[in-house]
Amino acid sequence: MKAIAAHRHHRFAPVVLLALALLVTGVLYAAFSPSSAQAAAAPSEDDLTAGSNLFRANCSTCHGVDAAGRDGIAPSLIGVGAAAVDFQVSTGRMPMMANGAQAPSKVPIFTDEQIRQMAAWVASLGAGPSVPSDEAVDPALGDAANGMELFRTNCAMCHGSVGQGGALSQGKYAPNLSESAPRTIYEAMVTGPQSMPVFNDATITPEEKRDIIAYLDAQQQGSPGGLTLGSLGPVAEGLWAWVIGIGLLIGAAVWIGAKSS
Amino acid sequence: MSTSTPAASAAAATADYLDQRTGIATAIKGFARKIFPDHWSFLLGEIALFSFIILLATGTFLALFFVPSMDEVTYTGPLAAMDGVQMSRAFASTLDLSFEVTGGLLMRQIHHWAALVFMAAIVTHMMRVFFTGAFRKPREINWLVGFTLMVLGLAAGFSGYSLPDDVLSGNGLRITEGITKGVPIIGTYMSYFLFGGEFPGTHIIPRLFTVHILLVPGLILALIGLHLFLVVLHKHTQFPGGGRTEKNVVGYPIFPVYMAKQAGFFLIVFGVLALMGATMTINPVWNYGPYDPSPVSAGAQPDWYMLFLEGALRLTPGFFEVVIAGFTIPLNVIIPAMIVPVALLGPLALYPFIEAWATGDKREHHLADRPRNAPVRTALGVSMLTGFTVLILAGSNDLIATHFHMSINAITWTFRILVFVLPVVTFWATKRICLGLQRKDRELVLHGHETGQIVRFEDGEYIEVHRPLDEQERWIRVQHDPRRPLPLLPAEDARGVRRPGYRSDALRAKVSRFFYADRVEPVTPAELAAAQAHGAHDQLTAGEHDETPAIGSSSPASVHQG
Predict the structure, then answer these.
(1) Are A241 and B117 inside 8 Å of each other by CB?
(2) In angstroms, what CA-CA distances link B329 with A132, B189, B321?
(3) Separation between Cα atoms, residue B504 and residue B355, nearest integer Å
(4) Cβ atoms A42, A120 nearer than 8 A
(5) Domain spans in chain B, listed from the N-terminal domain onward
(6) Is the pLDDT score of B542 beyond 80?
(7) Which of A10, A74, A170, B379 has the greatest count of CB atoms below 10 A from its CB?
(8) CB contact under 8 A, A242 and B279
(9) What is the pTM of this model?
């Protein structure tokens, strides 16, 4: 300690201290948010080339080779960010299989690696929202009660009270969220795919987004009342009241009526 | 009467004690020997009755814990998704009775399923009464009592599902407020009267609570008493058959046969409702959240029996709203929410009187009609049900769109057309099917059953052997009276003087022709004798009568009624 104390006025001391502080910060950052560091890792030149090639082969027919979009066919992807690419491709919405009111989600045709490469290339065209870290979308860290209130005011008018989905005009729809991954839900909020509006960080803060994810995750635990019947509300309940209730009771009435007295 | 065991003698002594003080034995003796006819469709009303009893029992339990108050509280119960959320005391107590009261959620769910089944059973029972003509004299008043019970059932359901003060039922109340305000001139005053000020206020839940647990169930209970009293007074209708006439009832006594059957059926109804309540989530208010006037969720619909009104609202285009001299006439609300229900339910209530007027029949009827023997009535019933069904589907248009991957706009336009076209199509189709079935009955009576046995005669002729109907089979097909259009007396008497009342008679004759001009009459004994005597039945017309025969008219010229 004495040696260190003796050298504390050394002319390189501030530099060493600064280096140490940076090292500690870096280590701590890496320790506490590993995925974030991973997500923030700059893509390599190879990734960009691979992403560009994948884009040319699979997306450029509609979006154009420079991703600037084509009028009336597909939007420009400059500035949509990696989150938009990850959302659209990892849920199988892109590439579109057929023109329709809305691109449906289906089994994705690309690997995670390929999606990352395409996302990196599109992100390199212009600044946009990046893929969120695992911590940012971890439902265990969110407040479901706050998420319920936010979901009800911002999301339920299209996605239904517990995210069971709903109809929009002309064949468009807000999809059922019960199968959606937390990362996908987050990306949808920041990029506003298809008919959905963008909920940027000023409208709904990242923590609030995580609360919403926590609320949707809580729905996976099932209903305290038994079978959920799809959480579709009174129409489904009425249907089952007729099919099961009246169905069984008329069956019983026929049985009683047929029993010879 | 042997009183061998102590229990039996105690029972006998108790009964004797009661009888000496109330004279109840006479009533019980008469009632226990009352005969009811046996048919499964006569048990549909019981489903409604038993559901109502279960509604009263579970409702009493719920009322012990529910707090009908719109005071704001902060939730601190076990439900994590509601932790610290501001809500009304009504909503908080609904959560408490669901999650903290032992058996509370089960009771709530049985209560709600029982409500849905109650209304469904009422509608099914009404269909049975309608299609068998069991509303005819002397039962018109009882039809009106039953109709009122159905309307009270709607009121009970609506006031009940609004009580938890969740977002979904709050949206329903918001629509109610809009409809109330849509009433011309007095709408705004009525809305303020109903809600005790601006929507939602703090009065509506306590008021609905009073309506739901006191007013409506009291009225339902009283009218059920009247309904059943009239059933006992009129005696139950029975289906036609050998030995069954307008003057007797063929069946089994209440005691012991129907006592046992009804008690068993009550337990079955209770069992089915308990099973549904225990396994199927209904009205999960914890999903909808406490009411707040700003959010409206996708998939917001009322319970099924109010869905036809929702459908009417969804189908009516917004541009119906007109502004005249600064006053808004919200026809887009007045038509679906006020005119449509009256136009649909009004004729239903008045139907017995309309049909009696068109038939001119003043006799009592205790034998149920087979639906095919009243083609226009059956067709009108099916047509009305079709209209309701289209409206119910229209009220579910968003779910149809998402589940069948269709455009909600296209669905809505399709239903806008179908709601007018489909009732006409089903009316026509049902009437033709009924007439066809009647012709088949005639054919069967005249020719017997086809046996599939082909016989060849000596001279080479092939015939199929027909087996004649037995007496029961034949009676069911020929017992009914033919119904013919009312004749219209001429507009002027023999001296050329205009007859008073001609115009109303002409209208009545027109309605009567609508009901009975197209008809297939049952086989007469003469026709049957002719058919059986010499097999020359092919010459008989299996006739549909499109021309009105002259009944009670002096000159053949008066037959033509246009």
Answers:
(1) yes
(2) 52, 16, 6
(3) 16
(4) no
(5) 306-440, 441-558
(6) no
(7) B379
(8) no
(9) 0.87
